[in-house]
Specification:
It is built from nine helices and no strands. The protein is an all-alpha fold. The chain has one domain. Helix 1 packs across helix 2, helix 7 packs antiparallel against helix 8 and helix 8 runs antiparallel to helix 9. The longest helix has 29 residues. It starts with a helix and ends in a 20-residue tail after the last helix. InterPro entries: Gly_transporter (IPR005115). It is found in: Cell membrane. This is Trimeric intracellular cation channel family protein. Belongs to the UPF0126 family.
Length: 216
């Protein structure tokens, strides 16, 4: 395994763990599920976006089913969240932070994998965003709430920016760990600043501004 591929795997597994924690904490806090439901929702949140990406790229079977480490890391993340549920179920901040971390890491690893498999610049950026928001969207649907990506919060936009920071330099031969970390850092910063200062994506003319209008 090359250094680049090893780094991509580490980032991907880190994102998997962060999203598994987020999905499981969401299950504990919002849906009041049992241990099976908590771990299942954590794994779906962690693995759903990557599965969508791999299916769209024709990279079959998806990495989730060809590498046991993804399933194990996702399950461990769900178990950790379940074990700490009493301490964390009343705290919104951990859920938001883990979601932002997963979003950032998956945006850059998803875009990088798309590039490696021959996708174009625009397609790679889009697939990076799909990797980042796909699992969270499935999570929100399962707990019967409007997906975050369809509300006016800054969610898909940070993922697109992070993916672009990885893809564009790579097209000029400047790809590598540094740009992946920069892309993840910028995505994380935009997402957390958006949450902190209640920044929203643009609304359509005449649309509502209370957070329930569609946005990217």
């Amino acid at each position: 395994m090359t250094t680049a591929s090893a780094t991509a795997l580490v980032l991907d597994l880190a994102g998997t763990f962060a999203f598994a924690l987020n999905g499981a904490l969401t299950a504990v806090r919002a849906a009041r599920l049992d241990i099976v439901g908590v771990i299942t929702l954590g794994m779906i949140t962690a693995l759903g976006g990557g599965i969508l990406r791999d299916v769209l790229l024709g990279a079959l079977p998806p990495s989730t089913f060809s590498d046991w480490r993804y399933l194990v890391v996702a399950a461990v993340g769900g178990l950790v969240a379940f074990g700490l549920s009493r301490q964390l179920e009343r705290l919104a901040t951990p859920i938001t932070v883990f979601d932002a971390l997963g979003l950032s890491l998956f945006a850059v690893t998803g875009a990088g994998k798309a590039l490696a498999l021959g996708a174009g610049v625009g397609q790679s950026i889009l697939l990076g965003a799909i990797t980042a928001v796909g699992g969270g969207t499935i999570r929100d649907v399962l707990v019967r709430r409007i997906p975050t990506v369809l509300r006016s919060e800054l969610y898909a936009i940070p993922a697109l920016v992070g993916a672009a920071i990885v893809v564009v330099p790579a097209r000029f031969g400047l790809g590598g760990l540094v740009w992946a970390l920069v892309g993840a850092g910028v995505c994380l910063a935009i997402r957390l600043l958006g949450v902190r200062f209640r920044l929203e994506a643009p609304h359509p003319p005449g649309g509502k501004s209370d957070g329930d209008a569609p946005a990217s």
